[in-house]
Amino acid sequence: MKIEEKSWQAKAEEKVAATKSKIPLEWLLDHSDLEKASQRKQLSGEFTESFLHYEELEIIRKDSVPLVDAVRDGKYTAVQVARAYCKNAAIAHQIIIFDQALQRAQELDDYYTQRGTTVGPLHGLPISLKDQFYVKQTDTTMGYVGWIGTFEGRDDPQKVYLVESQIVKELVSLGAIIYCKARLNNVVMLY
């Protein structure tokens, strides 16, 4: 019996659909917004920021040190910060891991509420990573469709969705929130 393998196009369509399904409905752009986006050369900055509320803009425009200070001082919660960054990323159509980010943010807020102190110097700071770093429960494809749902193209049950890069472990231990993975530029495939 021959098992039918999915085409790369089908795998790519499934990945796009899975990514879109993670975006909360209130963050989805409507048809007219998508039409406006298709007419623009520059999507980042003014265009994507037009979908954010004042407080969200205030959060995402802060440098990392003042942002972490604001969380430590109780001006913002880790959930508020993660939500602002996740919403901005959704609008920018990045590879998203919002559910994990918001869960991590809630853990950090609970820690702060219970202990009155932060986990570490990066407490509540959202961090985006290129899709070359392994984050548990998340695809790392390096831009290869054949790596979707695998570990480097192999169906190894000991590694698929279970491996985490050392830098990810370090960032999380210092209080960071991994909120999205950005796609890699095609130039990376030249090396």
Keywords:
8 helices; 3-stranded mixed β-sheet; single chain; mainly alpha
Can you put this structure into words, describing what you see?
With 191 residues, the chain is mainly alpha-helical. The chain is built from 8 helices and 3 strands; from the N terminus they run H-H-H-H-H-H-E-H-E-H-E. The chain has helices at residues 8-21, 31-38, 46-49, 54-61, 64-72, 78-91, 98-115, 166-173; strands spanning 95-96, 126-130, 177-182. Strands 1-3-2 form a 3-stranded mixed sheet. Helix 4 packs across helix 6 (78-91). It is flat and about 55 Å long.
Task: Describe the structure concisely.
With 191 residues, the chain is mainly alpha-helical. It has helices spanning 8-21, 31-38, 46-49, 54-61, 64-72, 78-91, 98-115, 166-173; strands spanning 95-96, 126-130, 177-182. The chain has a 3-stranded mixed β-sheet with strand order 1-3-2.
Radius of gyration: 18 Å
Helix content: 40-55%
Number of helices: 8
Oligomerization: single chain
Largest sheet: 3 strands, mixed
Separation of termini?
39 Å
Q: How many runs of DSSP E, i.e. beta strands? A: 3
H/E topology pattern: HHHHHHEHEHE
User: How much of the sequence is in beta strands?
Assistant: 5-15%
| Average pLDDT metric | 83
What spatial order of strands do you see in the largest sheet? 1-3-2
Low-confidence stretches: none
Class from helix and strand fractions: mainly alpha
Shape: flat
